[in-house]
Sequence to fold (363 residues):
Amino acid sequence: MDLSLSEEQEAVQSLARQILSDIATHERNRQLEVADEWIDRKAWEALADAGLIGIALPAEHGGGGLGFLEVALVLEEIGRTVAKVPYLASVVGGALAIAEFGDASLRAEWLPRLAGGEAIATAAITEVPGAAATTAVRRGETWNLTGVVDFVPAGLDADVLLVAAATGDGERVFVVDPRANGVGVVRQDTTTGVPEARIAFRDAPAIGLLSGDAVADWIRLRLTAGLAAMAAGVCDAALHITADYTKTREQFGRKIASFQAVSQRVGDIYIDAEAIKLTALQAAWRISEGLPAAREVVIAKYWAADGGWRVVYGAQHLHGGMGVDRDYPIHRYFLAAKSIELTLGGAPAQLLALGATLPDAVV
Fold:
């Protein structure tokens, strides 16, 4: 099994790392938090100028024409710096689905703007397939939506919404203007400090419909894989920050990294971080290659949820009091990992989903 990246993929990851490490520093993130700004516009514009926002969108609409694995590599670097950019919501939750299932007019209207970072998209969906919180009723040529979706990422800044709604023949995904009559957006604060949105639809008109089977599941699969990729970056950064800290912090006249209990704990963190990264890459690669990936995505999300928690908890523990100091960066990785753990289903939910696939797998 060859787990190495191609030269092109390494270049994508290196470019994303260079941009984000230069801009999304601890000091920059702290400034944005103090100012109650939840999008780093400078970093977002830099990613757009480098072609990284539209990297997997069709070339005819301003994209790079690459695959989901390249998207996952960018997400890993976003996790590594906990950059405040709506990449997962806008690219994975919005642009990729429009490119795959939108009609010609939707693609022409939205993809160039999304690829250039001029517009932001997001998906208003629930974590449970087939359990849409919104219903859609057809009135002549128009679909109208009613319902409420909580904690929509980037919902306060979105220019276009992809909404999973129940219809008489199943769950379908509609395109909605968040500024249309009948759409109400309310801020919901989160533990990460990046607010999300409670979006209420009251007979709100859809401006488009994504055609295809199981579109909502298609989006969920990629959002979940994207979360696992972000977790890989979050946990790798937490590991390195902790390793550096234990090599400089002294107790009893010795560097604490020389203590057996500390070195064993860091070793456990390393093992979990590697498992998170490898399962995330496997899931992203299978999606990128068009292979069945549902089981691999569940496994990756389980490791992101369960292993990710162990990584950041261990990192904070080894930092002692510094681990909860908000002027020190490690707390931000703890909050990011916990948010990833709970978004679109925690570890128990992933185990249940994985268990449901096993009878068919062993027949």
Observations:
- The chain has three domains: 7-119, 122-210, 215-362.
- Residues 250 and 256 are 6 Å apart (CA to CA).
- The mean pLDDT is 94.
- Residues 215-248 form the longest helix (34 residues).
